[in-house]
Amino acid sequence: MASRPFAASASHVVRAPGRVNLIGEHIDYCGLSVLPMALGRSVRIAFHPRSDRETRLVNRDPRFAPSAFAVHGSIPPAPAGDWGNYARAAAQALAQRFPDLRGVDALVESDLPIAAGLSSSSALLVAMALAIMHANGVSVPSLELMELLGKGERYVGTAGGGMDQAIILGARTGCASRIDFHPLRLTPTPVPADWQFIVAWSLVHAEKSGAAQQAYNERTRQCDAARRLVAARLGRREDISYPDLFAAAPVEQLLEVAGERTTLSGVLARRFRHVVTEATRVRQAETAMAAGDLATFGRLLDASHQSLRDDYEVSHAELDRLVELAREAGAVGARLTGAGFGGSIVALCRADRAPAVLAALQERFYAPRGAADDVGRHMFTAEPSAGAEVLAAGPLTPGASPG
Ligand code: GLA
Hints:
This protein is 42% helix and 21% strand. It contains 13 helices and twelve strands.
């Protein structure tokens, strides 16, 4: 299938943004609130419906080979790491709910850095789900769709927490959103006009469906184990949720109990301490954002990074270096964002400082690594954007001439 004629004849285009998590890292799978926002960068799919169940995907990026499958409730996966598995995940989740879905022919493009902790893969999954739903004239209420796709993405083998699909679908322009779970809710807070978030990729790939997956899933199991042991020590039911555990005991008591060697091993104590302190930081950060308190938000970003590096052990030397350089260049705070193990950082500065921070990262991080030419792809200012949407037919890239 040639891409250009297809793009011209596509009946619709769907756009699903990437996301940057501002704070609340590695706690969504504990059912604890997080504070991400959607990016201006996105995955876009031009598609038209087919009359059968087949789905054919072509990616404008030649690194991703064409992929095809039939839409039904149990779709055999392509080999682990294959990009088409995110489309399969979307199709399977929907087909389990709507048994007679037709497929689509789809052309995919993206300006999101890949495997950079910015949810390009969840954006692909969400975009594909919207394309299939639109092609079939079916719909799912927004919050239900977020949950359906959050669970649906586990098809690829990662025990993700649901933040990504929720913000990609539910983001508001100009806002970050606190996401609460069980029940799922999104509460937007406007990002102050004189704040600027900057995203910078470490040049280290963090494949969600690759090497990082095992380390990620291990963290989810450790959090579960720590919760059960702390609950037992406090005389609570072992299946108590994290939010209920936090409601039952003050933070100080939780940290004290977790620090007792008889309750948790060293590793579990550190994991638990990250979860407890990060959950506290999310509440404080949301308050700071609403009050326009840049300095406090920055301090919380720094504390989050330290905790992710030392207690949760998901950072990487290149992420630590980026954080350090951003701080030295005038960011009020910075931290790794997303699952870690590589990927990107998010830094916060006053808007008028952003050019200086970007210039310093270019000169001191990207140039010595031979990546200064491509720097616009690796780092950018993050504009809080709207969630995913189906657009009327048109060129895939806004402003490009069709065909
Ligand atoms: C990945 C997962 C999310 C979340 C983050 C870490 O992006 O998909 O659910 O757990 O890692 O905060």
